[in-house]
Amino acid sequence: MKRLLRSKTVMLVYVSAVVVAVFFIMNHNYLSGDNIRGIMNNMSLSGTLGVGMAFLLMGGGIDLAAGAEGCFGAVLVALLMKTGMPWPVAMLLGLMYGAAAGALNAFLINGLNFMGFIATIAMSSVYNGFALVLTNNQNVAISNQAFWRVGSYALFGVFPMAFVILIGLIAVYGFILAKTRFGRCILLCGGNRMAARLAGVSPKKVTTILYMNCGALATLAGSVLAARMHNASPTAVATGALDAITAAVLGGVSFMGGGGSIGGLLIGLILLNTFNNGLIVVQLPSYWQIVSQGALLIIALCVDFFNERAKALALKSSSAKRAV
Amino acid sequence: MKKIISLLLVVLMAAGLLACGGGGQNGNIETSGTETQTPDASASETAAAPPDGGADTPAVSADAPQNVGYIDDPVDHFARDTYQIAYLSPAFMFLQQSWFAAMQAFEERLNFKVTSFTGENNSDTYLTNIELIASQGYDGIIMDCEQPVAVRAYEIIEETGVPYIAFVQSLLDENGKTVCPQVVLDQYDTGKKTIDWLIANYKSYWGEIDASTLGLIDCTVTTSPDLALRAVAPEEIFKATFPEGHYFMADMAAAGGVTADAAYTQVMATVSAHPEIEHWWVTGSTEFFGSGSARVFDDLGKVDDALVCVVGAGANIVDWDSMTPDTKSSLVACLAISDLLYAAPAVSGVIALIDGRATKETLWRDKTPADWQFGTDYGVWLVENDIITRDTYKTYFEEINAKYLLSGGHTD
């Protein structure tokens, strides 16, 4: 119990609670139903992207093109619907495109040994460019009102559909990570590729699946955003990949791979979005908002650093005692 | 592996070529493709360059009104050779492509050929292009020049002696004064029109309201000077007209930039934090803020309690197009600026300069606002713009297209 209370995830819950309390004291409407709904909507975009990104980071990969893939995917889905295609079919094709985009990333990184960082930045430019070419920099209107509901319907009048989808994803992916062999393979590949190979796991195969998964979820995120906005914009989801990475790292997912949890990601998302929303609610000048957003990440990383150092010191001193 | 790499490169190259050749729809006119040049790529253009020296001075009918440098200039553009005009921009993104396509739309009517040159977001390339354009014998230049290189650009272009006008951005000297005729947008005025429209029309939606229940969310991006200027008038006028009202600035610089989602985030948080405000207005520096804000009021079920009127039309027209007649929306109006309204004076003006029927000191002097902030020594053509609504937008663009493209064309 003591160990659980000192875990990083619980630490983040404390920090989130403090953040919420501070903003609530500054403006009591911070916890109004409408504002919570706004926070949930914001969380759903970075969260859906974040689930794919967190898995990829844990497996030792990174996809800086996730935002662009999601943007292009949403444009594709909107254009397909414009031809009269039913929206579930268009979505399915969109998800298939997302998986294919991820497979291409994996090929560049695993097959051609490009650095993930560089390869996905380059692919980001390609997808952004194609989105602009396909749309001529015009938003693509979505007039299918059934599809609008994917983005704006509120379950029980409270929970936005996009947020419900996110919670569903967190449940499924949390289960995969914690309870399945594949979940353990992801952490093994991210932590030590050589050890994974010796254990009979193919890191290339695992990361290919993770890149495909990340691409598909990026398209899902972009499409849900398009449903909420009633149009697909070729410049949407621009900062999506960065937000997703920030939430994941904030939630304890190791940037170097091999560590993290979906629960941590959820707390990271809550902290990031309640914080950003609070800055607007209390009307902090915009330039200070930018400073604060960066500072939050630095503080979270420092807390993590000191926590890890304290653990290492404790371990060292107990080893020393045992040796004596 | 080599085969796979080769195949991949071929696919990418083919996709790149397709992308370069892609024309398509730009605003309300058809584009016929683009020809962007950089110094490296433009060597082959030499063969197609126009002959040196001016063409014959065209004939003007004696009794015709002297609308020199206007689209309805009565001069016979076909009494001379076809002019070669260069459009030089700092980058060639889709906005510039739209303007370029709008210029191309006048080629047959005004007997010229326009070619685009881009600085590729590089000051040196931009400046080098000015010399390149002059060396290739172009008759005139339409210059979209960013302020950091304006002083040097001015020196170079004056040395070349090629007639030119400034386009989209004023060409200013080191004292911040204009140095040539220009086709620009009055950024302050665009924002003023949106707030003026809301003030003039809100009663037809809500009747008389208590001003203390009214809030204005002024969406802008303060890191972009031009866009920031569009948000000044709404603040000034709202505070002066409704001193008891509630003003909020929503700066997208902190929320992800010029996107509808950024506007959604900012507006949702602001509206949620102020339930005491019963009526909302939203003004915005770009079209994207209109559709993002409208979604907030859709989601909160406050469509009838909000009026959104922003600068820019494209995304909002897409929104209106997607609605059925009975769909309610808080997005009631926006300020439209047709690309044709930018292009028409630009090409007409530079042609008048090339003809020699106007000088840079005389062109459009009658149109210069008396209080123009960058000085009144040269002509200033402020691009026309109008507020359009869900009921009027189709007619507006039909009328612009009819006025500028379908009438007054050359006939043999």
What can you tell me about this protein's structure?
The complex is a heterodimer of chains A (324) and B (412). By secondary structure, chain A is an all-alpha fold. Chain A has a single domain, classed as ABC transporter involved in vitamin B12 uptake, BtuC. Chain A contains 14 helices and 4 strands. In chain A, the strands form 2 sheets. Chain A has a two-stranded antiparallel ribbon with strand order 1-4. Chain A has a two-stranded antiparallel sheet with strand order 2-3. The longest helix of chain A has 38 residues. The two termini of chain A are 29 Å apart. The relative contact order of chain A is 0.19. By secondary structure, chain B is an alpha/beta fold. Chain B has 2 domains: 203 residues, 3-Layer(aba) Sandwich (Rossmann fold), CATH 3.40.50.2300; 150 residues, Rossmann fold, CATH 3.40.50. Chain B is 39% helix and 17% strand. Chain B has a 7-stranded parallel beta sheet with strand order 3-5-4-6-7-8-14, sandwiched between helices. In chain B, α9 packs across α10 and α10 packs across α11. Chain B is elongated and about 65 Å long. The N and C termini of chain B lie far apart (61 Å). At the A-B interface, α3, α6, β1, α11 and α13 of A face α1, β1, α2, β10 and α9 of B.
